[in-house]
Design brief:
Largest sheet: 6 strands, mixed
CATH architecture of the largest domain: 3-Layer(aba) Sandwich
Number of helices: 19
Radius of gyration: 24 Å
Number of domains: 3
Strand content: 5-15%
Distance between the termini: 62 Å
Helix content: 40-55%
Shape: globular
Structural class: alpha/beta
Number of strands: 11
CATH class of the largest domain: Alpha Beta
Strand order of the largest sheet: 1-6-5-2-3-4
Order of helices and strands: HEHEHEHHHEHHHHHEHEHHHHHEHHEEEE
CATH superfamily of the largest domain: HUPs
Length: 398
């Protein structure tokens, strides 16, 4: 495939959603040379789902791909067992091989929502990391000093607080750096929290006589509530979310994050985003911009038709007081505990979640407009419920 040196596309590549390029002059020269670059990105399957925050760097990788460069995607099935300490304020527990395998089931499909996998290399880093012996690991470790590791920001914070740091965590940058050697990377992409690991790749490539890779850090995205995007906090929008759920989550995004989401999570031009900003600044209801945002994000991952259907369902459900088309329907025995039904149908994940929802008056009887406040509520009649903001269930009697 011929490599494009289109100046406008290169300019966009180097600036849009980018936090830092190291070394920028080197990468600019390479991009304008017409040589096909090997551009590396690695994800550890620590969760079965990729969210739109992680997709930012995938879309940047797609820009390299569209210019004709070779995308090298690495699944960290081996490094996931060790655990990346980047931006972690406490020791990350080691994953089991089974957990990693379970998390991998839909990884390729999720990455394929952004990248053209037919034109990409797709590797598992266990292929080469499992072959390293103790001598190899010792040689890699010689590339770094204890001072370098301990001065890493999150390690330094934990040392100051007297918190434990495992030697295993010191090994992670060595392994990620060796990945760059294994695939002969010219460029590596990652979030800003990955900077130490990415620079480790340059050090290790130099040790093995390879040209040092350039580094591109992409901007980080906050979750829908303004905190760091994290599955454990429930503030993520996953690539595999159903269209209605994805749209609903976008509508829950904090108003002050709308423009950042447009910039990092859609394909709109800077001119279009500036126009949206001007509309908001002139007094337009942020809800209207957020609805546009919902359509754009759902369209990217599910298509325009599904995005329109999701918006229509949202309007019917939340603006007109209707029931979502995605409502679960189930028939139960009279007298069954509501909490047991919700658990069985996976509307809620635990009894603790149920107690929290009841305490927050977040369970609504849609037929009577009354809140359910009894955690031991028994079903005596057919009922339609809204659980939380976006979950619905229609319960009939057998």
């Amino acid at each position: 495939m011929k490599v494009s040196v289109d100046e406008e596309k290169i300019k966009h590549l180097l600036s849009h959603a980018v936090e830092e390029v190291f070394v920028k002059e080197s990468l600019e020269k390479k991009l304008r040379s017409g040589k096909q670059l090997r551009v590396k990105l690695g994800f550890d399957p620590t969760s079965p789902f990729l969210h739109i925050g992680r997709a930012i760097v995938l879309w940047k990788l797609r820009e390299f791909q569209d210019l004709g460069h070779k995308v090298v995607f690495i699944v960290g099935d081996f490094t996931a067992l060790v655990g990346d300490p980047s931006d972690k304020l406490e020791k990350r527990p080691m994953l089991t091989a089974k957990k990693v395998k379970d998390n991998l089931k839909n990884y390729r499909a999720q990455v394929g929502k952004v990248l053209d996998l037919r034109k990409a290399e797709f590797h598992f880093n266990s292929k080469w990391l499992r072959k390293l012996n103790f001598n190899d690991v010792a040689e890699l470790a010689e590339c770094f000093s204890l001072q370098q590791m301990s001065h890493r920001r999150n390690f330094a914070d934990r040392i100051e607080k007297g918190e434990e740091i495992s030697l295993r965590e010191f090994l992670y940058p060595l392994m990620q750096g060796y990945d760059s050697v294994a695939v002969k990377a010219d460029v590596e992409l990652g979030g800003f929290d990955q900077l130490f690991n990415l620079k480790a790749g340059r050090t290790i490539q130099k040790h093995y006589g390879q040209e040092e890779q350039d580094i591109m850090n992409c901007q980080m995205l906050e979750g829908t509530d303004g905190r760091k995007m994290s599955s454990s906090w429930g503030n993520v929008i996953n690539l595999l979310d159903e269209p209605n759920d994805m749209y609903g989550k976008v509508m829950a995004v904090r108003d002050d994050l709308i423009l950042k989401y447009f910039t990092l999570c859609t394909r709109l031009s800077d001119e279009e985003i500036n126009s949206i900003k001007e509309s908001i600044d002139s007094g337009e209801n942020p809800r209207d911009a957020k609805m546009r945002l919902g359509r754009e994000i759902v369209s990217l991952y599910h298509g325009a038709k599904k995005a329109k259907e999701a918006e229509d369902d949202f309007i019917k459900t939340f603006q007109k007081g209707g029931v979502s088309e995605d409502a679960v329907s189930v028939a139960v025995n009279k007298g069954e505990l509501l909490v047991e039904v919700l658990l069985k149908e996976k509307i809620i994940s635990s009894k603790n979640e149920w107690k929290r929802l009841v305490l927050e008056s977040a369970v609504l009887n849609m037929d009577t407009e009354e809140k359910i406040t009894d955690p031991y509520f028994k079903i005596s009649n057919p009922v339609t419920l809204r659980v939380g903001k976006r979950r619905f269930i229609k319960i009939g009697i057998k």
